[in-house]
Amino acid sequence: MKLRIPTSIYFIVYYFLLLGLYHYKIITYFYWNNIAFLKEGSFDLSTDRLLLSVLIFFLNLFCISRIKKTKFAYIVVSIFFILLTVPSLIAFTSKEMYPEQLLLYHQFFFFALFLFSFIKINFSGVPVLNKKQSLYLLLLVTTVGLVPYLIVYGPHINLKNLLLLDVYQTRMKMSGLSNPYFGYSYSLFTKIIIPLIIVFSLELKNKVLALVGVLYLIIFYLFGAHKTVYVGLIVVLVFYRWSYRQTVNKILKYSGLLIVLSVLLAMVSYDYLWILSFRRVHFLPTLLDISYLDFFEGKPLYWSESVLKQFFEYPYDIRHEYLIGELYFNNDAMAANNGLISDGFMNLGSWGVAINVFIVAGYFMILNSLKIPPKYFGLYFLVIFSFLSSSLSIVLMTHGALVLLLISIFLLNQKRDLL
């Protein structure tokens, strides 16, 4: 008889393993040393904060257990908890270096996401295309949308890129030909539309159209030699066969094993695994949050770099991400991109955080009201990840979150299982 380990156990093991890795290795990285020097503090463990962190962790875990594991909301709240809330709780254990205010912001987001998951919108009257209709529509959109790329990039395609040759030369040449259309549509095609074309074709057992989708993906790769064009398809296929509960369990299980492996390798002075994985994905965003709160306290930008730039003058000579990179990480070439919390604080302080939190919670509230099959979760995983590492407006527009929302309502909402 196969032993079935409760998901809560996976969460608990994950929390304490990550806590150990953080205080054993993460805080020794020079980024943390730079911030500690600037703030004249220390990232050492605080026992009082640790006890509070553990209590809040179990409260959050109790809330997650109240969500049905078959619901889309369950995996959304769980993934944000894994990637954002738990690292926040762990970073909070570092004495005075992690502001209580920042912990409150992250907890505010967690509970907003959790509570909004119980609000339902009735989409029963909205027409939904079946898979065949959806496939043909996506093929049409991609075929038409491909034309401007062929006109501008087509003459400069280098087939050597298929063998990973001349990649950087191609990227430099193509970047000089870019325009707003390409900037807004590239991720949309490569991370959402084309992966869906391939998946729908496989579901309908249409090998010809599946091959067309693969060819489209290869063409988009040749437009810039960016291997990331394959990320959308890979992520969709990885999550395709798992239920929401299985996905959460597997992420926690393999993350736990990876933490153990990182620690073992670190003991023999091999640090690249934890540096490239948990430092970058889990804790660099928390360090950026600390930096953004420290710098923009009382100095909001009022979205003067983006939607309100016609009304407010941006006060700095360089963009905010390079400003933070230079001041806090001693690297003027580092684009220290921020996520939804620090993006909101940077633009309007606590009110900005509240605005971003309600927008993101409302976004997933709409998705929670739909019947999204677990096999398509890979598309949403990329969006969740984007909310953690990019400004809200960029995620919604450039990374295709708004278009994915429309696709979810009209193409992926399975009121009935139609082919």
Explained architecture:
With 419 residues, the chain is mainly alpha-helical. It has helices at 7-24, 30-39, 47-65, 72-91, 100-116, 131-153, 167-175, 180-203, 207-222, 231-239, 244-267, 272-296, 320-329, 340-368, 377-389, 392-397, 401-412. The protein is globular and about 60 Å long.
List keywords for this structure.
17 helices; 2 domains; 419 residues
Q: Could you state the order of secondary-structure elements as H and E?
A: HHHHHHHHHHHHHHHHH
Number of strands: 0
- Please work out how many helical segments DSSP would assign: 17
Radius of gyration: 22 Å
Helical residues, percent? 55-70%
Distance from N terminus to C terminus (CA atoms, Å) equals: 37 Å
Beta-strand level of the residues, as a percent range?
A: under 5%
Task: Give the overall pLDDT as a whole number.
Answer: 91
> What class, by secondary structure content?
mainly alpha
List strands and helices in order, with pairings.
Layout: H1 7-24, H2 30-39, H3 47-65, H4 72-91, H5 100-116, H6 131-153, H7 167-175, H8 180-203, H9 207-222, H10 231-239, H11 244-267, H12 272-296, H13 320-329, H14 340-368, H15 377-389, H16 392-397, H17 401-412
Helix pairs in contact: 1-3, 1-4, 1-11, 3-4, 4-5, 4-11, 4-12, 4-15, 5-14, 6-8, 8-9, 8-10, 10-15, 11-12, 12-14
Short description:
By secondary structure, this protein is mainly alpha-helical.
